[in-house]
Amino acid sequence: MPQLNFDTFPNQIFWLLVTLGVLYWVLSRIALPRIAAVLSDRQGAITGDLMAAEEFKQRAKEAEAAYDKALADARSEAQKIVAANKAEIQKELDAAIAHADAEIAARAAESEKRIAEIRDSAQTDAETVARDVTAELVRAFGGNTDNADIDAAVDRRMKGVMQ
């Protein structure tokens, strides 16, 4: 193996040092500056992207706050509208109930008037029937019918029944 031949060691060391020097010079002057520039550009892009992301995050928070405020405003406006409509409906309902109560009261008064008329008519008819029946009974038993006595007897009896 020629690498292990001690006679060629100085020559191998020389070319090793020349090769390492050239390699160092190429890397330090050409490759490493380019790599450093790429890394610097990447770091700048990453930093810029992080700053943009932070800005977008802040904008998103502001937009969310605006959305929440708009939603709260819309809800409060909707509640106001519901309350106004509810009050209006309640007012209409109260008016309808008052109208219905007035109509019921009018019909009840009319019904009471009719009932009073019917009661008076029934009382008058009952008195007339009572007088006629009393007169017929007195005649049937062979008595003398005096209209004044029959009217007085029927009136006394009807007063007792009506009380």
What does this protein structure show overall?
This protein has 163 residues and is an all-alpha fold. The chain has one domain (7-162). The chain is 91% helix and 0% strand. The protein is built from 2 helices and no strands.
Task: Give a brief rundown of this model.
The protein has one domain (7-162).
| Main beta sheet | none
Strand content: under 5%
Overall spatial form:
rod-shaped
Helix-strand makeup class: mainly alpha
Transmembrane segments: 12-32
Keywords: ATP synthesis, Cell membrane, CF(0), Coiled coil, Hydrogen ion transport, Ion transport, Membrane, Transmembrane, Transmembrane helix, Transport
Protein name: ATP synthase subunit b
Membrane topology: Single-pass membrane protein
Secondary-structure topology with pairs:
Elements: H1 9-140, H2 147-162
For this entry, give a set of tags.
91% helix; 163 residues; rod-shaped; mainly alpha
